[in-house]
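quick one before i forget lol
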Amino acid sequence: MLYIGLDDTDNLLSRGTGHLARQIALELSREYALVGVVRHQLLVDARVPCTRHNSSKAIILDADGAVEPAALLERVGAMMLADFQPGSDPGVCVASAPPEAVVEFGRRAKRELLLQSDARELAARLGVPLVGLGGSQDGVIGALAAVGLAASGEDGRYMLLGRMRELSGLQPIEAVLAAGIAAVRTADGAPVLSGWVQCDKLRPARRGGRPVLFVRPDDGRWSPLKLD
């Protein structure tokens, strides 16, 4: 797998980083198998400068060893610069099978205030391609964190996955699974094998390296939960 982390590509008036991540993912899907785009929630703290909610995004590709991370970083960086938003501080990171230290960095970014130097020093030590593309370049923190959290397989929720975004209204469980979601479960983990799901803006969680939709019973149907 290849993990591409993006962060801080927007300003208060522009499209969000999630939109840009989806556009880049769709472009790359012309050549590589796209696993999905995942949103990762990082530390919410007044000391963290962010446009909205301090989340970063990860694009996950099944590239089958067909591309080097450094080459892909250069390509993605060029796409990000072509859409650079004044006032943003973008960063991008690309890694294949990132070391456990990068996964732990991502976990720390959810609970600790980290510095740009923390991200850069770790990436340099491990040989993980990481660059800032403008402004303060603080986006390198979230970019590296997104790679680690996506690689953990146990964090975030999918923003783009298979045909998930084509679903709307009430749909049977079979249609949800056919769209690319691996499983539907209740909040306590029990499998849901039948019934109808409210499918507007589904955001399945990334658990066990798979997209799992968690739901709750709601007046004879299943309503989706958004879990980070």
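fyi The two ends are 21 Å apart (CA to CA).
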